[in-house]
Amino acid sequence: MTPTDRIIRTVxxxxxxxxxxxxxxxxSLTPEERRWNSANPVVNEDALPYPSSHxxxxxxxxxGFLDTVNTWLDSRKELLVLIRFSRAAGxxxxxxFSSLEAFLNRLQELPPLACITVFGQPQLPIRGVVxxxxxxNCLSNFIxxxxxxxxxxxxxxxxxxxxxxxxxxxxxxxxxxxxxxSRGVPxxxxxxxxxxxxxxxxxxxxxxxxxxxxRTGIY
Length: 219
Prior knowledge:
- The chain is an alpha+beta fold.
- The chain folds into two domains: 115 residues, no CATH class; 69 residues.
- Helices cover 33% and strands 21% of the residues.
- It contains six helices and ten strands.
C-alpha cells in the first residue's frame, strides 16, 4: 500500500471514528429502564403534538421482528446484520451475531433512528486470514460487474468505541486493494447482501426515538 493509500484509509477511518463517537451512548440503560422499554412499546404517533416521518419498518422492540431473528438464530450458526446510522454521512456497519442475547445487547447501544437489517441466509461464505493464497481465492470467486463485501471479523477499538472494518466495491482492482489493507487479519468475503428490500430472508427495524416513536432517518 502506497503512502497516499495509507493517508486515504487513515482519513476514512478517522471520519468513521468521529461518527461513532457522536453516535455512542453516554451510558448503558439500567435494568429499570430496560423493563420500562419492554412495558412501553412504540407509542401512537397521532397522539404526539408534533409531526413525525412515517416509517415502513417496525421498531426493534417489535415482537414479530425479534421472533424472526430468534428463529433464524435457532437454526443457523450466525446472522449478518447491517446497521445504518441516521444523519451520519452514510455511515454503516456490518456485524455477525450468533446469539439473541448479543444481538439484544447491541440494540441497546444504538442511537435513535438507526436502521437494522438482518439477513436470514448465510452471507460472506469465504473466510480466512488474508494472505496471498486467500487473495487469489477471493479474486477467483469474484464475478466481474458484481458488488462484493469484505468484513473483518476481529473488532477494532479506539477509546469508548469499537467496530468491524469493512470494504466493498465493483472491480477486481478495488477488491485487491481492500484485501491488501486487511492483510494478516481474518475476514469474511462474498457478494454484497441484498439489503434494499425486505423479504422472506431479510427483515429490518428501526431504533425508536426518545419518545418511543419509530421514524425513518436520513441514511
